[in-house]
Amino acid sequence: TLPYDNSIVIQKPMSAATLQLLWQQTLELLQETFSLQQFNTWIRPLQFDNRGDTMVLLAPNRFVLDWVISH
Q1: Mind listing the pLDDT tens digit for each residue in 23-60?
Q2: Which helix (DSSP H) or strand (DSSP E) does residue 46 occupy?
Q3: Angle 27-33-26 from CA coordinates, rounded to 5°
Q4: What are phi and psi of 58, to 5 degrees?
Q5: pTM (global) more than 0.90
Q6: Distance CA 16, CA 46 (A)
Q7: Beta bridge partners of 58
Q8: How far, in Å, CA of 40 to CA of 33, rounded?
Q9: Spatial separation of the C-alpha atoms in residues 52 and 20, rounded to whole Å
Q10: Element (H, E) at 48
Q11: N or C: which end of the chain has fewer CB within 10 A?
Q12: Would you say the C-alpha torsion 52, 2, 42, 32 has a positive or negative sign?
C-alpha cells in the first residue's frame, strides 16, 4: 500500500548490491542538492531497505516522510 494516491513505484529486477549502490549514489546527489542542514535533518535519517528487487526508504516519523514526499 502506498502512502499517497499519486505515488509511483518503479520496479526493475536489481540485485541487493545494485540497489545499495544506487542508494549511495542517490545520497551523494542529494547531498549536493540540499543544504547541509536540510540534508542532515531530512535525508540522513532515512533508512534504506531492499525487499526483493524493490528499494524501500524508511522514514523515522511522519514529519520526515511528509517533507521528503513534498520535496
Answers
A1: 899 999 999 999 999 999 999 998 888 777 777 888 88
A2: none
A3: 20
A4: -110, 125
A5: no
A6: 17
A7: 47
A8: 12
A9: 12
A10: strand 47-51
A11: N
A12: positive
